[in-house]
Specification:
alpha/beta; Arc Repressor Mutant, subunit A; Aspartate Aminotransferase, domain 1; PLP-dependent aminotransferase family protein (chains A, B); globular; 13% strand; 18 helices; homodimer; 8-stranded mixed beta sheet; Aspartate Aminotransferase, domain 2
Chain lengths: 475, 475
């Protein structure tokens, strides 16, 4: 088959999509690639574009063609191929929308870009004065604080403080049951290392935080989605998924679900735990949005007593994402194995950022900051919700707290198309399918209300939504 | 078989050893355990102690007995068993000497313990004033520095500075070829995720940094050791190992080898690269001790031009281990895949510690600090070497730089026994076999000369070495 000349950017996009899936372990060495027709339909490109991309990937050794059978990922393709049309300094604006799309667009955005798609607050919403004070205090700390590795479990006073804060949410955890990590993401990563064998099945919510997909693929897990309802996972679907797939793990957010803003109800929590107990499923409860909460919602870890539920948290969302620090609370026998894994993979933890977080948390002003922040978010949530509804964008529910609004676009618009157009105008959005394993959130979008303070955000949204567009179901 | 009453601490030690090997993936689910006789000999306990330990591990579901065949690790033993005689606050002084022993003893040591076994400098040897200045500067930084995630590649000015410093060592790397990581260990961990499939073989030096063993086991790699000589790996053994085991990776330190202090010679470097090229072996060159160097030694990455050699470094050893920051320099097509893996497993990197490191490195005083430090280490190395030789402890070579002295103990003393006795006296040592895959360094010990400034260190060493001891080859 002769390669056919095609728009280089589309061919490159297809090649990058495949390389990404290989790098992120969504496609393992030896795996069969999607058929040309199927991939063309999925990526909305012509079959000849896919043909050229596959030919070129064969040419550089990333994939292999087996005549009569199709295309397969080469052994060690993730490492030895000559992949990726490389990293110029700026964001890759033509990258396919996959689990990394939102992450990279948000993290690589220019300072002047608006980022309603990102998952964090603007700096001015964070307790900057507290962080500055804590840094000044640290600059006068004793030498070991500035120079030495952290202890394996991590800074003891911070673990005690985290234990007390968990107690306020009904979760009993002694400081010895708490292990500090570099971040909430790293906490889940360590747990996957401990609990998963390659090929194990993990349940996630559909939709869920998009990075769960990327992280679980890096662990070669089989991922199964359970539809999420306004009160937690759809319990019948959860029971069926457990029976059919015998998962090892279920990863979820209980209080303030990402991306929907939903809150787990006590009755759903109880049922989820009962099913998990009967089938020996371990649950990771990712509670990184805890400090946004205005009234305490149920926690699986509180009902379960940290038996099969592992509770994780971090301070990136309400304190600082620059000085990173997360934690794992679990039963003692797991903490010791996790500590060894932490040493093996990161050696001593970052003591300085733990000291910084402790400094800010133990400063009386942090609680006041949270009160102001929650009120500000509540007001903003209402304003933004109204303005979005004026554009025909409909919230799936009105969240009780947090920064996210999960919305349906008007006219069944394809959120990925809208996100691509918005990006041309300097607006980073988070299209629904980045969160959805089943790709069933095509017309949904997650909005971060704190990042929508500038009026031009709504002007761009209006323009993009009212622009002529191809019907959603074109081939 | 009825369990026989035994000293609980020995039984517990055996149980912990097995659980650790399971947690660290040295023993995978379904793997056969060592025979009772073999384990008893290896751990220097009676066979009845091992019998009781195995019985108890069967009892709690960690392992299974198959009559007539032996004992096997249970499926999911690492996670569901009720393991570990839990973490009281203090260090576990009776823990078996495995790759984690030195790490945990060093990281968990009381402030009053002396730690000639640890791998870092005392705080007073580090550029504390520079760190304090950098913290004060950070306390006045712009808001995003204090609040936002780092960019995927990490702080651009720091990557530029690292590139220039690498240039001084003959390695060409543009800032786009440099990815910041949370630490040197995390850099290797990311690379293992990218490059290894479970079951792949990795070559390491024998002896090598003990944590390489733990880290590679966490990646389910098969580890093969190559004897290390004063000028690099034994090149014939290296060639044989490559031919016999077809390794995917070779991990080494070029300049200032840990634990021996040896330096790679140009001729060995050239031969290693030639063999690696012929057999498509990727090399990770861990250069975290670079700043100790007094005259520049050859780097594999300089000869190879970052083609199949990946160069990693960190600032934990000469700047601060509290504010952690490492880096990976590699060919561009690998950096992009690594960036996705970094996002999947840690999301945004720690911006604050990167800013801190940049602040200290770009402060003119850091170079002056290094000059003073190198001189101080050279003087100390000489004094400590003489004092050790007075105790009959013989250096394997006189290192040209760095903090480590790799020494043979007098009278073929078992270094693990000596380390256990010393620990009772508050002295943390690093016995040779923790570094040796072949367990052929029984009579060796690694000494960190910077941690031997207190005269009582030598008093304790003298006492422990002159105490009556069982002959090395008892059963």
């Amino acid at each position: 088959m002769e390669p056919i000349a095609r728009s280089p950017s589309r061919t490159t996009m297809v090649m990058e999509t495949i390389r990404l899936r290989i790098a992120s372990r969504a496609l393992l060495p030896g795996a069969k690639l999607p058929s040309i027709r199927k991939l063309a339909a999925a990526l909305k490109v012509s079959t000849s574009t896919v043909v050229e991309a596959y030919e070129r990937l064969v040419g550089d050794g990333t994939i292999q063609s087996r005549p009569g059978s199709g295309f397969y990922v080469a052994q060690h393709a993730g490492a030895t191929a000559i992949p990726f049309s490389v990293a110029d300094a700026g964001p890759k604006r033509d990258r396919a929308i996959d689990p990394f799309w939102v992450s990279r667009q948000s993290l690589e955005a220019d300072a002047q870009d608006a980022k309603p798609g990102c998952g964090w607050l603007p700096p001015s919403w964070l307790p900057e004065d507290g962080v500055r004070r804590a840094l000044r205090t640290l600059s006068r700390a004793k030498s070991p604080v500035l120079s030495e590795y952290g202890s394996p479990l991590g800074l003891a006073p911070l673990r005690q403080l985290i234990g007390r804060r968990m107690g306020e949410r009904g979760i009993d955890a002694s400081p010895d049951q708490i292990l500090l990590s570099e971040s909430g993401t790293q906490a889940i990563d360590l747990l996957c290392r401990l609990l998963l064998e390659p090929g194990d099945t993990v349940l996630v919510d559909d939709p869920c935080y998009f990075n769960f997909h990327a992280l679980l693929r890096a662990h070669r897990a089989k991922i199964v989605g359970v539809p999420y309802t306004p009160t937690g996972p759809d319990i019948d679907a959860f029971a069926t998924a457990v029976a059919d797939h015998r998962p090892r793990l279920y990863i979820t957010n209980s209080a303030i679900h990402n991306p929907t803003g939903a809150i787990l109800s006590p009755v759903t929590a109880h049922r989820v735990l009962k099913i998990a107990e009967q089938s020996n499923v371990v649950i990771i409860e990712d509670d990184i949005f805890a400090d946004f909460e205005r009234s305490p919602a149920p926690r699986l870890a509180a009902f379960d007593g940290l038996d099969r539920v592992i509770h994780i948290g971090s301070f990136s969302k309400t304190l600082s994402a620059s000085g990173r620090c997360g934690f794992i609370a679990a039963k003692p026998e797991w903490i010791d194995s996790l500590t060894d894994l932490k040493i093996a993979t990161t050696f001593g933890g970052g003591r300085l950022t733990a000291e910084l977080v402790y400094g800010v948390l133990s400063d009386g002003s942090y609680r006041k900051h949270l009160e102001v922040l929650r009120q500000r978010l509540a007001t903003t949530m209402q304003t933004v919700s109204t303005r979005l509804q004026n554009l025909g964008v409909t919230p799936w529910l009105e969240p009780q707290a947090g920064m996210f609004l999960w919305c349906r676009l008007p006219d069944d618009r394809d959120a990925a198309d809208v996100a691509r157009s918005a990006l041309q105008r300097g607006l980073v959005l988070a299209p629904g399918n980045a969160f959805s394993l089943s790709q069933s959130a095509t017309t949904f979008m997650r909005f971060n209300v704190s990042q929508m303070q500038e009026p031009h955000v709504f002007d761009i949204l209006r323009d993009v939504l009212s622009a002529p567009h191809a019907p959603k179901d074109r081939p």
